[in-house]
Every structure is written in structure tokens, then in C-alpha cells.
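Re-run with default settings, no changes from the original entry. Doing this only to confirm the output is reproducible before filing.
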Amino acid sequence: MFLLDTPKHNEKNLSFKMSKSYIRTSDIIIRKEYFGGIAFNKQNAVNLELDKEGFFLLSILEKPLSLKKIKNKLNLHFSKIFLNSEIKPILDSLKKNGFVKIIHLPCNFKKPQKFNENNFLPNVLSAPETVHLSVTGKCNLNCVFCYGKSKTPDLSKKEIFRMIDTLSSMRVFQLAIGGGEPFLRKDIFEIIDYTRQKNIIPNITTNGTLITKEIIEKIKNKIGQLNLSYYENFKKLNDILQLLIKNNIRTGINILVTKKNLPVLKNIINDLLRYDIANIIILRPKPGKNKKWYQQNQFSKKELNKLKKVLDKYQKKINVDCSLTCLMYNIPKQELQKNSVFGCVAGSRFCTIKNNGDVFPCSFFNEKDYLAGNIVKTDFEKIWKKSQTFKKFRKLTKKIKGKCRTCEIKEHCKGCRRIVLEFGDDFYDSDKGCLKR
């Protein structure tokens, strides 16, 4: 096995010309990990996890190789015999997903990249796949559910650039830029440009109210995706969506489900599906700075069942945030694995950097007890590898308690720690929002 859930091919259809050469496409970033490695496609923001054999195959394709040469290198490196019928379907799958292409002309290429074999912690990624960065605590709105607005001083451009340098050296794939409202920051376009220069894909989350034609021109062909926050009475949403789509800006919509909009959630989704948007993400209410608002929007079991029915109906057309995977218990574990559903990945696949440089596992944590460090005082790579807070989150699957402990999909869910701690002091307790609990 090279790739997770690689599609099976009929061996009768495996005809190929020996003159063909395979090469990794230029938009691919690869990063070695303890289990093999991760490949990231900058064009479509697709992550692909590979075992050691699959990662070695993709790493040697930094220069063009025929199927015969690929097989010889695999045989030599792993001291075992690989068949063409094993390798060809893998190459076909990589090609289909844009990770590999076929060329026919010989070219001069640089030597394949070398990776440090001794730089891995047991069962821990060498770097996050995505880092969430709040570039400012300022916002032009005053949403009752907001968790990002802050009066603490923002990081300077120099401090942010230094942090981006570190992320680049660690081969972080994406930087999710938010706030507050990121377009309130005057040097936001310099931050976007520098992120792209450092081979990291910058994505933006915005309330959308400040977007103009001028802003669109400045971010065009530079960001991976722009995510708009959906909220009631956003009268300009249709105009902004049309403007973004017209300019080929990959766009997503974040919908926070509340007691107020749950009854009309289907209508909202149907309305948004009329547009050519990249994805619709359904968000679960979580405890933030406004405790009263959260208490008013806690879902009853009846409401959770209603939400689950909506999620089931639009399963192939929408995405859900990690805290809602507890409502996906009826989906087979293999399918969750195939679709890269990992549930809570705070501190293991991503983390958050607040506008003042404080590092937390998740955007919804602000307490000192869960502070992993500060990038102004400590190098981010050291925080990622040494933080006791991150280590606590990384033990979730093994230490989770209650009914979650015996759940078949616990590795793909793990519940929401922010919500768990709202109801008690046991970090490893089960999520009360799960219908199976």
C-alpha cells in the first residue's frame, strides 16, 4: 500500500509505453513524516498522506523517471520486489490528483531533495499542516459570538515575517490569515505576498464588508482561498460573491449554526449552492468570550437530531468543522479515512497564533493554562515540538473517557475540548454534544 485508499485498477488496462517518464508537478510540496510523508498540492489545496514506500516514490520523481527506473529504485531502496501492476495504479492515482505528470522530452533537473531522517518525534508531525494567524485584534463589526476580537497589541510586520520564515523552513503548507478583520491591517497585502514568496499558501477569513474591486485585484492569484463569514442581514453577500467568482477567487462560506438559523439552514445552503463556490463549512457554536450567548445557543438533543439530518442530506456538498464530526457516527470509518476526516486536530495538525504572538492549540482557547508559548519570546518550531499543552491534545485518542473511548470513529472525532471544558474540569471527558453519548 502506497496511498491511503488507493483505487483498485484492472490489470488488463495497465498498458503503457516504456518511453514515458513520470515527474512530480511543480506545485507540489512534500514533507517527510514518521509514517512516511505528506504531499500538498498548492493548486487545489489537497493533502495526500503516503506510507514510506509511497513517499519515497514521490520524492524520487523530482526528476523524470521511466516506470522501469522507478521500479528499480524501489526494489533497491526497500530490498524487495515491486511489480509493475503495483506501481502503475499508484502513478495513475497521483497523476489524476495532480501530483505527477507524464513528459516525453529529456531535461536537466536538480538532484532530489534530501530529508533529515533523525528529526521526528514519535507519532508527531514534524510541523503543522496549517497555522491559523490572527493578524489583528481589531474589527469593524461587533458580533456577539466573536472569539477573535482583542485589545492586545498586534504583532509587527517584522515579527510576522520572522514567524513566516520559521514556518517556511518547517515546510508548513498553509497560513490561514484572520483576525479580527484582516483587511483592517494596512500591511496585509505585504504579509500575503511574503507568505506566497516563502512557498506557503495564504488563505483569508474575512467578514467581507470591506471587500472592494481594489482589494480583489491585490489578492488575485496570490491567495489559495477566501472564506466569508455568513451572518444574518449581510445584504451585500450576493454582490460580493458574484464579484469574487467573476475574478476567479476561490471562495468558501463559513456558516455558524445557531438556534435562530437552524430552522432555515436548508434554505441557506440551497441558496449558496447556486454559486460556484469552493465549499460551504458548517460551524458549531462554541464557548467564547460571550458566555451568555453560548448558553442561549446550546442545542437540545432534538435540535442536534435536526442538524444531523441536514448534514446527512448535504453530506457530499458541504463540509463541517471538526467539532461536528461527532454527528457523523453513521459514516463508515473507512470512508472518513478516505476523506481525511480527523476530527479535532488542535495541536497535532494545526494550531493558532493570536494577534499578540500567543500560541494556542485552537482559536477558542485563550486561558493561560492552555498557552503553548509566544513566538516573540520563543521560536515556533521549539513551541511545536516541546509544548506540554500540545502534548496533552496529542494524547486525546488514547486518553479520552466515557462512551467516546469505545466509539468506532474516535480517531476521526475526539469531540470538542472547548465544549467539554465548559461542562466540567476533566479535559479527557466525552463531548456532551454527541448523540451517541
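The domain at 130-423 is CATH 3.20.20.70 (TIM Barrel). The chain has a mean pLDDT of 89.
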